[in-house]
Design a protein that fits this description.
With about 140 residues, the protein is an alpha+beta fold. It is built from 3 helices and 6 strands, in the order βααβββββα.
Length: about 140
């Protein structure tokens, strides 16, 4: 996959703070929306995850704010999975204005929780490969 997965979002007025820019917590909502949109594009619904007995969990999230966003701004939120060994994976995301200016960078560490055992699955890559209709969306 050459281009990262991306979803467009319009900043809504009710998401802004007293200074008129996007509230800091909403950046995380945009990142989460892009992650679930990627799963949906890959054919993985919440119901499908539950039927497999797993659920995604966030273990760490960092946001670097670079430029303010205002009500009415349109942004593209990217989502790229990065795989190492073990039970976790990284997700790198950018929130970009339509002119390409990076407004924020989001990095996260996640895993897949075995819902019966309440422990991380040993190899989340294999579970995503099993569930997805498009392994390229996960960089696999």
């Amino acid at each position: 996959m050459t281009e990262p997965f991306s979803v467009r979002v319009t900043v809504r007025g009710y998401e802004t703070d007293v200074q008129g820019h996007l509230n800091q917590a909403v950046y995380l909502n945009y990142a989460e929306h892009a992650r679930w949109s990627l799963l949906q594009a890959a054919g993985i619904s919440q119901a499908r995850l539950l039927s497999r007995g797993v659920g995604p969990v966030a273990l760490e999230t960092n946001i670097r704010y670079l430029r303010e966003l205002l009500a009415g701004d349109e942004v593209d939120v990217t989502c790229v999975f990065e795989w190492g060994g073990g039970k976790t994976f990284r997700i790198r995301q950018e929130i970009l204005r339509t002119d390409g200016t990076v407004a924020a960078e989001v990095t996260a560490v996640g895993g897949l929780l075995n819902l019966a055992e309440r422990k991380l699955v040993p190899d989340p890559r294999e579970v995503f490969k099993e569930l997805t209709e498009d392994v390229a969306l996960f960089g696999l």
